[in-house]
Specification:
Layout: H1 2-11, H2 19-38, H3 41-63, H4 66-86, H5 88-99, H6 103-106, H7 118-133, E1 138-143, E2 158-163, H8 166-172, E3 183-187, E4 190-196, H9 211-222, E5 226-231, E6 238-242, E7 245-250, H10 252-264, H11 273-312
Parallel strand pairs: 1-3
Antiparallel strand pairs: 1-5, 2-4, 3-4, 5-6, 6-7
Helix pairs in contact: 2-5, 3-4, 7-8, 7-10
Length: 313
């Protein structure tokens, strides 16, 4: 397969010396895809660190520092494996889209979920406070950045698409309703779905924790860009799950403080998307401008060669 590709590049006028630039361009595109998939500044620092390690390993190998190159190569492999565990959902999304052939979608950054204003947080906290006092069980999933893939849920639930309000949340979780057993998904200032069945955590947990708490731990283990508020039906206690860890018990004022703090950090997310889009556009335009130029050069050279042959004959 390599020979026809090399022959095709040679016909376009590409020389052997330009192949390293093609190699570099493909690596840049792959890096661009990974950065778009991840999108969080704190995680991007890890990606940049891995890229620096890879560059240092390549440089030391080129210079001939064999021992340093060996150490850096093993460090790169270990770091890549560690990041694969820490970024399971992002890598799963990358592999799924590659498998479906959705390569162009990987080059587009996803839209950020709108940070929740104080009024929306107040509605959520007021509803949780009332549910806690009445010992009505509740499970609320809050997106913190890009939308959650519905395939991360065991059952997606029933679409609602209603404005967030204390009354709506209290009504959904009343035991007389058909949707009270599942979770509510909130995106921005809207209730997207109710009756959502979440995957349960596989971690060993305290016997005091019921199915709702294990579901909150499960979804935040599987999806990093979400929080999950739990109200216990037995005790009325309030919990907040993040990255598989439960913060409990909480007062309503403490819950408001934590939610306000989490969503105020939205400025730290997806800071590179506009720059990456601009970079991707510039690379695409540059490639489009170079390829026709190479084709024209190749065709003119071919014409001159044919003309010279005709004159000799």
């Amino acid at each position: 397969m390599g020979f026809p590709l090399r022959q095709w590049l040679a016909n376009l006028g590409w020389t052997q010396s330009l192949l390293p630039f093609i190699d570099l361009l493909l690596v840049l595109i792959l890096t661009y895809m990974v950065l778009i998939i991840i999108g969080e500044r704190r995680t991007l620092w890890m990606v940049r660190g891995l890229i620096l390690l890879m560059l240092a390993s390549a440089l030391s190998n080129a210079i001939g520092l064999q021992l340093l190159s060996f150490v850096l190569e093993k460090l790169v492999i270990g770091s890549a494996v560690a990041m694969a565990f820490m970024l399971q959902s992002e890598f799963r999304r990358l592999l799924e889209q590659l498998g479906r052939g959705e390569i162009l979608q990987l080059l587009r950054s996803t839209e950020e979920a709108i940070p929740k204003p104080d009024s929306v947080i107040d509605e959520i906290v007021d509803a949780v406070k009332e549910l806690s006092q009445n010992r009505t069980g509740a499970l609320i999933v809050l997106e913190t950045s890009r939308p959650i893939d519905e395939r991360d849920f065991s059952v997606p639930g029933v679409r609602i698409n209603a404005e967030v309000s204390k009354e709506m949340l209290q009504t959904i979780f009343q035991t007389a309703t058909l949707l009270h057993d599942g979770a509510v998904l909130i995106r921005g200032s809207r209730i997207i779905a109710a009756g959502v069945i979440l995957p349960l955590s596989e971690r060993s947990a305290s016997r005091q924790l019921g199915t709702r708490h294990r579901a909150a731990m499960g979804i935040t283990e599987r999806v990093e860009n979400c929080l999950c508020v739990v109200v216990s039906e037995e005790t009325g206690s309030i919990s907040l799950a993040e990255r598989g860890i439960l913060n409990r018990p909480l007062t309503s004022s403490k819950l408001r403080e934590l939610l306000t703090d989490r969503f105020s950090q939205s400025s730290d997310r997806e800071p590179v998307a506009p720059q990456l889009r601009t970079l991707g556009r510039q690379l695409r335009d540059r490639v489009k401008s170079v390829l026709p130029r190479k084709s024209r050069v190749s065709s003119s050279a071919s014409r001159r060669h044919n003309d010279s042959k005709a004159k000799r004959s």
